[in-house]
Amino acid sequence: MAHDSYPPRAARYLRLLHRGGLILAGLVGLVFLVVGGWLLVSQGWDRATGEVQSCTTRVERTGTTTRTVQHCTVSWQAADGPHTASVDVSGSGTLPGEAMDLRVNGDNVVVATPAWLGVATAAGGLAMVGTAAVLLLRQRRAR
Q: How far apart are CA 6 and CA 16, in angstroms?
């Protein structure tokens, strides 16, 4: 990126802004990579079908975005006896008595997700981290 036509001070600020943007993109990619990895790890956990006992609905507002989340208590039967835990579910369509597919590992319980979701999230994160790293290295060498 050539900033020769800008005054030296402006060119320096543009380089810093560009570098900061690349670092931010790399950090966001790292978050996607970790979340995708967590989703993939949970694919190896035991499967269970739980029954929703009760749910509390809340609306989360962040800036201009609004989303509905339900905090549900779910019970299921495992080889070592009955279990109960709480999970967060997107949307507001979950009713008491409904069946819910779960992934269980000890005290950790998550709503079951398809494997492609973990793969796509991790791959997107890896692509963002890789792209940011390459562009940061190229920017450094260009000077």
A: 14
Residues of 120-143 as b/e, b for ≥16 C-beta within 10 angstroms? ebbebbbebbeebeebbeeeeeee
Nearest-10 crossing angle of helices 115-142, 8-42:
160
Structural tokens at position 123: 């791959």
Q: Which two tokens stand for residue 25?
A: 């993109």
The pair of structure tokens assigned to 7 is: 């005054």
**Which fold is adopted by the domain 46-113?**
OB fold (Dihydrolipoamide Acetyltransferase, E2P) (2.40.50)
pLDDT digit string (tens) for 39-96?
A: 999 999 999 999 999 988 888 888 888 888 889 999 998 888 888 999 988 877 888 8
SS3 6: coil
pLDDT digits (tens, 9 = 90+) for 94-125: 888 889 999 998 878 898 999 999 999 999 99
Q: Measured between alpha carbons, how far is residue 40 from residues 16, 98, 114 in Å? A: 36, 26, 9
Contact between 110 and 42 (Cβ < 8 Å): yes
pTM listed for this prediction: 0.74
